[in-house]
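Supplementary material to the annual report.
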Amino acid sequence: MSDLHFRAQVPVFDANVRIGDRRDEVSAVRNRAELLAEMDRHGVSRALIYHAQGEFLSPLDGNEYLQHWLDGGERLEAQWMVMPTAESIAQVKAAHQAGVVRAVRLYDTRHAGLPFRPWAYDELLSWLSECRLPLWIALPDMDLHELLTTLQQYPDLVTVHVGAHYSHHLWVRPLLNGLPNAYLELSRYEPIGGIEALIAEFGAGRLLYGSWFNRYAMGPILFYLHRLGLSEPDLKLICAKNLERLLGVSSVIS
Amino acid sequence: MIEGIRVIDFHGHTGRQDVIGMIDNPTLMLHALDRAGIDVACLFHIFHPDGTTSNDINARFIASHPDRFVGFAYVSPLMPDRMVSELARAIDQLNFVAIKLYPPYTPWPIHDERWYPIYQFAHERALAVIFHTDHFPTNRPRFLGEIAPLFPRANFVAGHAGNVPEARAEAIAAAQAHPNIFLETCSTYRTPGVIEQLVKEAGAERVLFGSDMPLMDPRPQLGKIITAAISDEAKRLVLGGNAERLLRI
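Predicted assembly:
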């Protein structure tokens, strides 16, 4: 293949894909077939997907819409949105009892004035800890002090922090140092040499490839990971194996 | 080099903003360029409105690796009396090859006549001028459409190609209307389909690869071009052919 083209050289499991339309934005892919075609174009074998409506309007509705995109776990794994209300927690608990929940993503309540504090989130965070379900949290929605002090009260909870941007440059090390069970998703992490520095400091085992497609293009961060000069085992960890371990699923198609 | 193309990054900085991880360490920058296959990075320093201080800092940085870095001159209408003389010094004595302007540091939109002496200088020397563009009042790309025909020998580059959809549409429309307007690709918003849109609607010969290094690592920004669904010929123009022509380097 020409160097003017790119396709992943290791198995890839994208840890952060949003599907479906927002109310004010049309998705770049319209259905499962188009999503799979985009994944194929970049060499992405599998993706963890959540629905845009669950992120911006209703976790309950979003989780329902998400079901139409799934393929029985062959290439697309569901990520369930959740918020700290009885109805939302009950929906995810029921799905978990049915054996279809492997990862959960936090709906942002801070924009509505409900902070990320134990008094508001204890039921949800305690249940996730007990069930060993990993929780995805979008960093742009959070306050770092609140995030750290709350999560430190749930030491068994595994969290994946999504969307660290250069504007979060000063957050990343306190986060990874303060939360031993925290992982960093890399879709927006672009400080120069930043990923190499994190690998040197924390190891490849704490990092996950995510594109945050369809908010961002799927290929550029994957291309970047292939231009870090990583050992093949480290590249495989970041591109798929860390996520497989978190979700408890078998290896992706190579 | 990528496939025999001399890859030129049209948008880079010197200077530090530690709080956001922008560190102009030449070792880090060269490492990233080498890993990506980028041959030349265009750099500017934009933190001193007198121009002279910034340009001297930039020149010292570039002198450490003159085979890999080229300089763009910076001036500001906050100190209007210095603009033209400093541009002449930066181009003639420091060997800089183009001009960078950062309108958000001023209260004046880019079509305000306070900026005109810079454009006149660029017109007389047939230089490229790159602006930060987005949707904020001083930086609207549509203003390029007003100044480009007044200074036809200058080439105007919309840095970030407007950055967001509404401003990007303005940038494309300006480029369609005027042959001396170009669009540069770096952006923290790596929205799907943007590179394809720029190439399709403005033409590959009007699009320039840029990264915003060291605010952002050049590798994912290069990845936007490499992974875009555009032709190989378009990639060759965007990655280096257009910049070579524009900068005459």
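Chain B has nine helices and eight strands.
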